[in-house]
Amino acid sequence: MVENSGIMARIESLLNIFMHEDPSEIAEMNCRKLARLLNMDEKTLRARFDTRRFASPAAMIKQKKLRLAAVLMADDPDKSIEQIANQAGFQNRQYFSQQFKKQYGIPPSSFKKRLSH
Q1: In this structure, are residues 18 and 25 in contact, taking their beta carbons and an 8 Å threshold?
Q2: From CA 39, how far away is CA 14, in angstroms rounded?
Q3: Which has more pLDDT, 103 or 55?
Q4: Are the CB atoms for 34 and 45 separated by under 8 Å?
Q5: pLDDT tens digits for 49-102?
Q6: CATH 1.10.10.60 fits 2-116, yes or no
Q7: Would the pLDDT of 2 be above 50?
Q8: Nearest to 69 by CA among 102, 117, 36
Q9: Where does residue 92 fall: left (phi above 0), alpha (psi -120 to 50 degrees), or beta otherwise?
Q10: Collapsing DSSP states into helix, strand and coil, what is residue 92?
Q11: DSSP sequence for 43-75
């Protein structure tokens, strides 16, 4: 488990650095790219991934993209939900809205409204 803890810490660190220094990297992130950044193949990444907190590497990446969307909404409330979704790496606005609501308990439109008050 120590080995898995090390991988999880590396993944968290890498994604947090991107979140703060180059958010577009989060938007473009997928399992293949994450594995390559960690110098391993996707199969190895999945095998070494600790599923106690996230179901999969893809789930962790999606959570980071949703966090990026929340930050983008706070930073620029004039952007449309579709623009935010695209900028955070979601190609489908409906899927984005469903996942955002699942993560935060409210739709992105309500989240934006709360930010403006």
Answers
A1: yes
A2: 13
A3: 103
A4: yes
A5: 877 778 889 999 999 999 999 999 999 989 999 999 999 999 999 999 999 999
A6: yes
A7: no
A8: 102
A9: beta
A10: coil
A11: HHHHHH--TTT-SSHHHHHHHHHHHHHHHHHHH
Give residue 1's pLDDT band: very low, low, confident or very high (50, 70, 90).
Answer: very low
**At which residue do the structure tokens 């409330």 appear?**
77
C-beta separation of 61 from 14 below 8 A? no
Q: What is the pLDDT of residue 3?
A: 56
Element containing residue 114 per DSSP (H, E): helix 108-116
User: Cα separations (Å) of 104 from 3, 8, 9, 74, 109?
Assistant: 31, 23, 24, 14, 12
What Cα–Cα distance (Å) separates residue 85 from each residue in 17, 63, 68, 73, 103? 21, 13, 9, 10, 14
Provide the residue ranges of all domains of the chain, joining segments of one domain with +: 2-116
Q: What tokens appear for 76 in the block?
A: 């620029």
Distance CA 112, CA 96 (A): 14
